[in-house]
Fold this sequence. Notes:
three-stranded antiparallel β-sheet
Amino acid sequence: MAFELPNLPYAHDALEPHIDAKTMEIHHGKHHAGYTSKLNAAIEGSNFEGKSIEEILRNISSAGAGVRNNGGGYFNHCLFWEVMSPNGGGKPSGDIGMAIDRDFGSFEAFKEAFSNAAATQFGSGWAWLCVENGKLSVCSTPNQDNPLMDVVECNGTPILGIDVWEHAYYLNYQNRRPDYIDAFFNVINWSKVEENMKKA
Ligand code: MN
């Protein structure tokens, strides 16, 4: 069974003005589509064929660069579309809000830690909110790596991620990555993040 590009759960322009339609169109239709087809080509005929994406990532140390880059790219973007929503943003309440207060002290402290991880990731990569043994933490990874991979320093299950590759923001924000990170907070789908936390 080959991996398939998931449909976006909303229209290309649904996240405007925070993330513009053209960026979403290229990001999903070209970049994510490319990772998906290249992942399928990279695992064809290998021991990874037929495995779940999570299983592939947890054993990525035994894979080549093609599987690592495109498997990460496939998984990361699947998560990314899901943790954004046109009805998102704001301060989370419920269990995710309480877990953030418990592990970061306050939502504001979490926002600062997550934004800082995203802003200071040098070059292309991602910043993550993870859960491990019931505790939340923030980290970042380069390229298309993610915390599920058995080769990265940050561990845990990612439940929220922000793409800080320039292709994620350059059309609208050019070099102003911090403005894009601020805008991302207006579209975070906290109910999905809470669901991810409960499944982790
Ligand atoms: Mn991307």
